[in-house]
Structures are given as C-alpha cells and as structure tokens.
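Page 37, continued from 36.
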C-alpha cells in the first residue's frame, strides 16, 4: 500500500514537473487523456451553461407529457468526432436546428475555461458542421514545428505555428506577394530566415535585398542566386528582374500557339501552364528593411529611389504570372515614404504584422482588411518577440510565431538542400557573387559596370 502511494506521488510530481517545464511532453503523456475525459464528461453541462443548447423538439415534449415521463433535456450540438492532436483536441460538432456557427465562436472564450483548455477557436466546415480546435497549452511560447515536407510542386512552405496548433503556410501560388511589418526587434528577420529555410529545398531562385549591409540575409547567402546589400546593387538587380519578367512573357507568348481548336483553359497564361522542361524557375525576391530603398538625401539618390520603386511596382503588378514573387519586410510602409508606396502596398496581398508601436503602423498592414487584426497587432507584448498577426486569403487572421531560427541554425537546412541553385539567366552572373559571402569581396563589390546585369549570362 505504501509503495502504491509512493508511486502515485511520484507520478503526480512527474506530471506537475512536466506540465511546468515541458508542456508539450506533458500534453502527450498525461494531458491529452485527461482533457479528452474532461471534455466528454462535462460536455452536456458546459454546453448548457454556455447557452449552446436548444430545447427538445415539440413531438418529444408532447410524447413525454402523454407518457407522464420527465421533460426531455435541452440538446447540445452532436459530437461527430473527437481527435487528439500533438497540441490539443479537435471536436467536430453537428449543430442543432436553430443554431449557427457564430453562436459557437462567440462562446469560444467561455468554452476555453469551462473545459480547462488553453485556447479554443472555431470554424465552420460546411453548413451546420463546426470544428472546435482546442489547445492544451500555450503552443506559441516555445514553438515546435511538426516535421513537414515542403510542398515542392506548389510553392507552399510551412513557416510558423498558429495559436490553434496548426501550421501556417506561405503559399506563393495563392498569395503571390506579401508584406511583413513590425517594430525593431519584433522578429521580422527571423520570420524571413524561416521562409528562406523553407524555400531552400524547392526549385526556386532566391533573390535578396538587405540594405542593413547584408547582416540579416548574408549568413544564408549560399542559397541565394543574387543578393544586394546596398540600394545601388538593389536597383541593378530589380532592373534585371524586370527584364527577366519580360523574357518570360515572351516565352509564354511563343508557347501559346493559339488556334481555334485549343480550349480556353489550355491556353498558357503563366509559367505553371508551360511544360516542365521549358518552364523558367520561379523567383522569390526577399527585401528586408524596405524603407531604406525609399529614402534619399540628394537628387541622384532620388532618381535611384524612383527607379527602385518603379521596378518593385512593376514586379508586383505583373510578376505573378512570370513566377516572380515579392516578400517585403519593413518597420513601416506608408505614404510618408513617398510616391508609389501605397500603390505597391495595394499589390501585396499577404499581410503579417509583428509587434508595432502605434496604431498607424498596424493600419498599414490591416487597416483595409480587419480592425480586429489591427487591435491584435498593437496588443502583442514587447517580450513576445516573433509573435505576429497574419492575415489569410479569406480575410480572416491568425496569431502566429515562427520557430526561433538563429542565423547559424538556419544554415543547416540550407546546407542540406544540396541541389544546384537555380538562377534565371539574367541573374546567373550574380549567383557566383553570393557563393562565398565571407570572402573579402562581397556581392556588392563584385557587381560593377563591367558586369552588366542585362547582358545575357
Ligand atoms: N519567433 C521567435 N521566437 C523567439 N525569439 C525570437 C523570434 N523572432 C525573433 N526573436 C528574437 O528577437 C530578436 C530580434 O529578431 P529580429 O532580428 O528578427 O527582429 P527584427 O524585427 O528583424 O529587428 P530589426 O528591425 O531591428 O531588424 C532575435 O534575435 C531573437 O532573439
Ligand atoms: Mg531585421
């Protein structure tokens, strides 16, 4: 008996310790079973207390009256499925007549503490069927991504974890261009490095512009086809990309060979409609600290600025079908940066905001999309670095956090991607500049007037 008591105390102490130090392990060992039991046992009374029940149908009430039996109890949504996951539980519910998905999402917070879970979110799967995603612990405190393979054929990379425990993907085919905002030290560059690590194994050319003298992207330079660390090189690279885009459109035109017998759906309209053997490699252009490209101190710099912004606007407007995708990061990105900026911003469909210091900055990301997301972005605490609000293509938003890849850790997945780095012909010459980032002659010094980007490689 004493041994049993000692064993019980040890198990409870181990569970307590795990819950405190390693919530993810606690969840997998003890938490999931306890939570499933708690939810199933309390389900009826919690739904009743949260106002998520409907009275029994009239025929049952009449039958009970006639048979002199107790009045049937109000009915909660029927549980279709309970699925334990790595981070929580997923409940699929069939709503009763008269209920709607909004009732459930409005009660999410009440359900959260009634079931003793860390977070509850709901979404409607189809008419009358709602999915409740519950998390057992704060999954964003210590982000652990499940091991997932990037979706090689579809330009879709896992980049962060959402607060409901699901994976947040950056899908370039659905959302070609994106803007990431955040105050200094809020986690923008870490997010961008995660993107690079995710894109590394794909057949895609990466082009980087990092006007912080390259400190953020240069540790990952091995994987870049071209990398600029100052506005002059950036302007050359962007011009080369615009020329590359025009080449790709010429290629698509030449391949279209439209005749009356070709159905509309088969006419090539972007690079993904071309046969694989002639399809140009897609290009992802990563720009860190974009404001640096838009600032100027004299006439000459103003001309360079206009050249850069015009090229970016052209790439944002026309680049998608040519397989050119923009990923722009900055602290603010508003009209105070001069002409062309709001036009460029309007083309950046994907929005992510890390912690911002004022509402205006949050409005630059979400003002025209969702006021709730603006509020969520300004309430991210300063110590929660890397936490961000990400808009999705449906107009909704999620709280996300990327895993804290440090520059050194980020190199490992990049080194594993041993395939040759694809580079569009016009960027081919630049690619050699980035192979040895730590040599004395950095990329910017290797791209001189004698190495004109617009020359075919
Ligand atoms: N997802 C994350 N998880 C944990 N820590 C993070 C995360 N993202 C960032 N950090 C921490 O915050 C620090 C600053 O991050 P980062 O360099 O990405 O900020 P930034 O927004 O790019 O800042 P700046 O505008 O000054 O370049 C990192 O060194 C890291 O310690
Ligand atoms: Mg940064």
């Amino acid at each position: 008996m004493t041994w049993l008591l000692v064993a019980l105390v040890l198990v409870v102490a181990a569970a307590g310790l795990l819950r405190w130090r390693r919530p993810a392990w606690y969840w997998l060992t003890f938490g999931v079973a306890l939570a499933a039991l708690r939810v199933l046992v309390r389900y009826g009374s919690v739904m009743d207390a949260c106002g998520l029940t409907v009275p029994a149908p009239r025929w049952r009430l009449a039958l009970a009256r006639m048979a002199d039996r107790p009045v049937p109890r109000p009915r909660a949504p029927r549980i279709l499925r309970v699925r334990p996951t790595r981070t929580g539980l997923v409940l699929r519910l069939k709503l009763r007549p008269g209920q709607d998905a909004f009732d459930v999402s409005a009660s999410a917070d009440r359900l959260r503490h009634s079931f003793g879970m860390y977070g509850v979110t709901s979404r409607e799967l189809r008419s009358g069927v709602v999915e409740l995603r519950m998390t057992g612990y704060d999954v964003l405190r210590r982000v652990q991504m499940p091991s997932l393979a990037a979706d090689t054929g579809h330009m879709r990379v896992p980049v962060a974890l959402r607060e409901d425990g699901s994976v947040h993907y950056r899908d370039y085919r659905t959302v070609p261009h994106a803007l990431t905002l955040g105050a200094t030290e809020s986690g923008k560059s870490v997010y961008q490095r995660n993107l690079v690590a995710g894109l590394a194994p794909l057949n895609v050319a990466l082009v980087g512009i990092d006007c912080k003298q390259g400190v953020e992207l240069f540790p990952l330079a091995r994987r870049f086809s071209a990398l600029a660390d100052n506005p002059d090189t950036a302007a050359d690279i962007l011009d080369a990309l615009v020329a590359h885009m025009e080449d790709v459109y010429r290629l698509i035109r030449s391949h279209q060979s439209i005749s009356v017998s070709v159905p509309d759906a088969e006419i090539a309209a972007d690079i993904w409609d071309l046969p694989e053997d002639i399809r140009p490699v897609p290009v992802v252009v990563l720009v860190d600290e974009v404001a640096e490209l838009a600032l100027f101190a004299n006439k000459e710099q103003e001309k360079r600025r206009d050249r850069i912004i015009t090229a970016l606007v052209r790439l944002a407007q026309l680049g998608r079908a040519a397989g050119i995708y923009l990923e722009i990061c900055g602290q603010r990105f508003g009209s105070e940066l001069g002409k062309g900026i709001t036009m460029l911003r309007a083309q950046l469909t994907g929005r992510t905001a890390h912690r911002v210091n004022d509402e205006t900055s949050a409005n630059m990301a979400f003002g025209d999309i969702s006021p709730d997301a603006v509020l969520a972005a300004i309430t991210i605490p300063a110590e929660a670095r890397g936490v961000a609000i990400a808009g999705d293509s449906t107009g909704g938003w999620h709280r996300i956090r990327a895993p804290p890849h440090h520059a050194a850790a980020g190199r490992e997945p990049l080194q594993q991607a041993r395939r040759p780095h694809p580079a569009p012909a016009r960027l081919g010459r630049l690619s050699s500049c980035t192979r040895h980032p730590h040599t004395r002659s950095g990329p910017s010094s290797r791209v001189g007037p004698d190495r004109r980007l617009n020359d075919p490689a």
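The first strand starts at residue 78 and ends at 84. Flag for discussion at group meeting. The chain has two domains: 2-135, 152-446.
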